[in-house]
């Protein structure tokens, strides 16, 4: 039974990029001495507070850690936006894990967070391939992969549909400021119809940490320069990146739960079927009436994930 009164602790860890040092914020739920850790990592323009509902559900079992990936939320912005890349994010997560020192580690990643988890698990494969493809693409993972006990991939896999990437890329770098929080939430709702039906209270909760007030205006919480690294990716790099991610996925040696929004344009049903065929440790759960990506707020979305992680 989740405790609605449970609130997280805000912590920071200092990480390195080729451009210098930066702090990554993370939200920690549950017993800080618990060495059974669940790391939850958000999507491209979201924040660690996306997982509040799930964290409250699981904090009795896990120390649940939800980072704000660099450039988002309470984390620093990078001095050089060229390093807003998965290799840099993986490097930051390795630093975070060195701080957490888990005896057992589960990973839940939504969209971008799932890609980070795949790269982290198959770090040896990923590092070698990335070094060959883009020698200066950011910090590289360690030579050995991080051992995961369980992996949840929320509406993401090694193959990313280019149409969905183009849709997402359209709004990432757009500046926006609003006269009120309600206006900011209304704009978020208009851009997030693929999340599926939510109550007004749930939409407000989804927007609560995404639009901080600055100078009497409500603005986006992330560095708009994220769009620069996204736009710099060539079709050739995207194709090569897919092959790297498949190789990393094939090496994942723990149980995998693939969550897919029934109407997702980023993770197709055909890709899920290929993932199931290529890794016998994987199983899938489809969320009806939702596209990219399930927000894991409603009970019917939370409970299958909780059952997998607690089982």
The computed structural class is alpha/beta
DSSP summary, beta strand count: 11
CATH class: Alpha Beta
Evaluate the radius of gyration: 18 Å
So, CATH architecture? Answer: 3-Layer(aba) Sandwich
CATH topology: Rossmann fold
Order of helices and strands: EEEHEHEHHEHEHHEEHHEHEH
Characterize the overall form: globular
Helix content: 25-40%
Alpha-carbon distance between the termini? 15 Å
Number of alpha- plus pi-helical segments: 11
Low-confidence stretches: none
- How confident overall, as mean pLDDT? 91
Largest sheet: 8 strands, mixed
Question: How would the blueprint of this fold be written?
Answer:
Blueprint: E1 9-17, E2 20-29, E3 36-41, H1 52-58, E4 63-67, H2 86-100, E5 104-110, H3 112-121, H4 123-133, E6 150-154, H5 162-172, E7 177-178, H6 181-191, H7 200-207, E8 213-214, E9 217-219, H8 226-231, H9 235-250, E10 256-261, H10 269-278, E11 282-287, H11 299-310
Parallel strand pairs: 3-4, 3-5, 5-6, 6-10, 10-11
Antiparallel strand pairs: 1-2, 2-4, 7-9, 8-9
Compact description:
This protein has 311 residues and is α/β, with parallel strands linked by helices.
Provide the descriptors you would attach to this structure in a database record.
Rossmann fold, 3-stranded antiparallel β-sheet, globular
